[in-house]
Here is the input.
Amino acid sequence: DHLGPTVTVGEILVEIMATSIGEGFRQPLDLVGPYPSGAPAIFTDQCARIGGSAAIVGAVGADDFGRLNVDRLARDGADVSAIAVVPDYPTGSAFVRYRADGSRDFVYNIATSAAARFGWSEAVATLVAKAGHLHVMGSALSMPSAVAVIDRAVEIVKERGGTLSFDPNLRKELRYDAETERRFSELVAMADLLLPSGEELERAAGVPGREAAIEKLLAMGIPEIALKEGARGASVFTADAEPLHVAAFAVTEVDPTGAGDCFGGAYVACRRLGSGIEEALTYACAAGARNVTVRGPMEGAGTRDELDAFIAATQRAAP
Ligand code: ATP
Ligand code: MG
Here is the structure.
């Protein structure tokens, strides 16, 4: 952590969710929200709450949805100096409704909202110049403004001896063009830490099969892979040590959104603060599990004390 804050780049949104299970939004529904959201924002909030030094580059509108986000991030200790407040565009939003099978329907306003309207600025340059770590979310790669900032930031952070983590965070709804695919592969190859979940592992490696994918990624020189396995916990793979698995904490899932981002925020914060892999993985699993017990994408993000209490009080799920 001594080298400077963990910086993330990307969408800052509010989420508004249907209170009923069902399909879509084609009739009047009871909704609840706004909740602060956006994968990079959730990551940043959890990273800061657990005691990591964290900052986000992004943009909000000059409206209450924007203020809700900036106030939450600032309250939780994140550096919000590189969040632009954009006049004339509303803060980005995602309306979400869960289906009975657990899948989700979305109405997004991201690309045409304030969320996509930021770029390289004085404030961003100042922040990146002192960053010690850059965390990239695959979801941000569909925003040209984010890509432009990420491209410059990767170079600067690596140049000053900082590190890079990459959460592929793929959206099945999004098709990536050839340029984005190329950038995706580059980020995988450059990452000091990869944080895939499910099929993202094989996608990142470009080979089928879990074992083969891990072997290929380690052979490519990626030092550390933290694989998120949902209600089965998580595993970390490195070139020179045995794989380490941590069982999930047994919780009742109320809202799965944000688990992966909280996992990542806690894992990166702990590793950068000097934790070994097992301790970081335990906090990360606790952060993900605690977050799914609360409605709202980052409402369950925990402080160090809250996560310690959660770990002490919660049984491990059967492996
Ligand atoms: P997201 O849906 O946010 O993209 P993800 O697919 O990236 O999530 P998950 O594996 O779903 O990541 O969740 C991250 C971590 O959070 C898991 O590795 C696990 O430790 C914890 N977690 C998630 N869901 C549960 C659950 N239902 N019970 C216990 N722990 C969970
Ligand atoms: Mg994910």
Summary: The two ends are 33 Å apart (CA to CA). Residues 8 and 56 are 5 Å apart (CA to CA).
